TrEMBL record:
Residues 78-410 form the Aminotransferase class I/classII large domain. Residues 7-22 have a biased composition (Basic and acidic residues). Its cofactor is pyridoxal 5'-phosphate. Belongs to the class-I pyridoxal-phosphate-dependent aminotransferase family. Homodimer. Keywords: Aminotransferase, Pyridoxal phosphate, Transferase. The keyword Cell inner membrane does not apply. The keyword RNA-binding does not apply. GO terms for molecular function: pyridoxal phosphate binding; transaminase activity. This is GntR family transcriptional regulator. Residues 1-22 are annotated as: Disordered. It comes from the Bacteria. InterPro entries: Aminotransferase_I/II_large, Class-I_PLP-dep_aminotransf, PyrdxlP-dep_Trfase, PyrdxlP-dep_Trfase_major, PyrdxlP-dep_Trfase_small.
Length: 443
């Protein structure tokens, strides 16, 4: 066999079977939940410059002061290189953990630096928390829709996700009660409620303050832990913040934080604030995952917090994203066909759109990409195949002009899709349940 032979012609290989993975029967059972996104190839096309991507959730880093950051990084290596380039503790750099406490105080949290574990992004926190608490078959309650990366972690540990309904004010307490009652009736063990209370990804809504205590009470009554994921909490467009669930019930809430949206996602620095009793297990889980989070990146964040006007930078991000949100909402108002509805985010990155009966957003996506606009179809944000009439639009990355143009193109595609549905009936794909890897957030 020569290297140039196509795989079909290799001796012993069956024609057409060269795509089969020879390691298939070696994988652990838990990998069954790990499926590659069927739309990955499409996203390769969607990232071409002529396509307006409203699909990804990439922060708009152009607003960062790159010049002063680069000077600061050079100083860091010159002054603290032997520490910055060395292993550190699994717990994270102590000064950074103290600074993180100050940040969380802005949302009413009084945490102790000892109870913080620095992670490689809050995605690692999600993975660790699921690893610590979930056996296969355990139930995790999560808003419907929910963050695709969290659904991926739950699937990887074979947890069963039960979605809990949201409305414009976030998670609905009565549906939480009902989901818990059903799980108890069915003899299922609910391990935790996973919730994104502020500027939800993908729904764009915020949990009403008056619901927060009630949700915590319900979870405490049923002996269910709360995992609060809050990467967008400081990105309210009017500078508004909301009391963290963690601030109201420190013993029953694991809090996940991140510098990805308020500073730099590529540094991959996040954290978990655990109830004191959980902290030790969390450190051990972190140690087995990475030995320690990258010291250099932690020191970059720590220096940035100590020497930059980071609150001013967050204000700049808020203004930037507010301008883009405004562009998206006014374009939706102007162009979307009748029968479409969408949420009105007052912070964060996303608008959640519901389209009329008969339109399937997953089936429509290739046509949208052909019309040079991309979005994230709704099914990826549910673990149960729901979401075919929904889509997530991100306004964080494109310029306001591109957003307006993207929505205009999307509305045109929707119009023709609705026309097709009226003429021939609905166009559906088979229900593809999320979560899919990679999440659309990196596109
Ligand atoms: C709700 C939510 N949680 C967690 C993450 C992961 O963030 P990180 O970059 O800190 O891993 C994201 C990223 O988009 C997110 O939207």
């Amino acid at each position: 066999m020569t290297a140039s032979q196509p795989p079909e012609h290799r001796p012993g290989s069956e024609p057409g079977r060269h795509n089969l993975d020879p390691h298939l029967d070696r994988y652990a059972a838990r990998t069954a939940g790990m499926t590659a996104s069927e739309i990955r190839a499409l996203f390769a096309v969607a990232s071409r410059p002529e396509v307006v991507s409203l699909a990804g959730g990439m922060p708009n880093l152009a607003a960062l002061p790159l010049d002063s950051l680069s000077g600061q990084m050079a100083e860091l290596i010159a002054e603290e290189g032997l520490v910055a380039l060395q292993y550190g503790s699994a717990h994270g750099v102590p000064t950074l953990r103290e600074q993180i406490c100050e940040i969380m105080a802005m949302e009413g949290i009084t945490g102790h630096p000892d109870d913080i574990v620095v992670t490689v992004g809050s995605q690692m926190g999600l993975d660790m928390v699921t690893r610590l608490f979930c056996d296969p078959g355990d139930v995790v309650l999560a808003e419907g829709p929910s963050y695709v990366g969290a659904l991926g972690s739950f699937a990887a540990y074979q947890a069963q996700v039960v979605h809990v309904e949201m409305d414009d004010n976030g998670l609905v307490p009565d549906t939480l009660r009902a989901a818990l009652a059903t799980a108890e009736r069915e003899g299922k063990r609910v391990k935790f409620l996973y919730t994104i209370p502020n500027f939800h990804n993908p729904a764009g809504v915020t949990l009403a303050v008056e619901r927060r205590a009630e949700i915590l009470e319900i979870c405490a009554e049923h002996d269910v832990l709360v995992v609060e994921d809050n990467p967008y909490g400081l990105l309210g467009f009017d500078g508004q913040t909301y009391p963290a669930l963690r601030s109201m019930d420190p013993d029953n809430v694991v809090y996940l934080g991140s510098f990805s949206k308020t500073f730099a996602s590529g540094l991959r620095v996040g954290w978990v604030l655990a109830p004191h009793a959980v902290r030790e297990k969390l450190v051990l889980a972190a140690e087995s995952a990475t030995l320690c989070p990258p010291t250099l990146n932690q020191l970059v964040v720590s220096r940035y917090l100590a020497t930059h006007d980071w609150k001013g930078q967050i204000k700049t991000f808020q203004e930037n994203y507010r301008e883009r949100r405004d562009a998206m909402l006014s374009a939706l108002e102007q162009h979307m066909p009748p029968g479409c509805t969408w949420t009105q985010p007052d912070g964060g990155f996303y608008v959640w759109v519901t389209v009329p009966e008969g339109v399937d957003t997953k089936a429509m996506l290739p046509r949208a990409v052909t019309a040079r606009v991309a979005y994230a179809s709704g099914t990826g944000f549910y673990a149960d195949g729901f979401g075919s009439r929904q889509m997530r639009l991100s306004y964080c990355y494109p310029t306001p002009e591109r957003i307006r143009e993207g929505v205009r193109r999307l509305a045109g595609v929707l119009e023709s899709e609705m026309e097709l549905a009226r003429t021939f009936g609905s166009v559906t794909t088979r229900a593809v349940s999320g979560p899919q890897f990679p999440g659309p957030d990196t596109v």
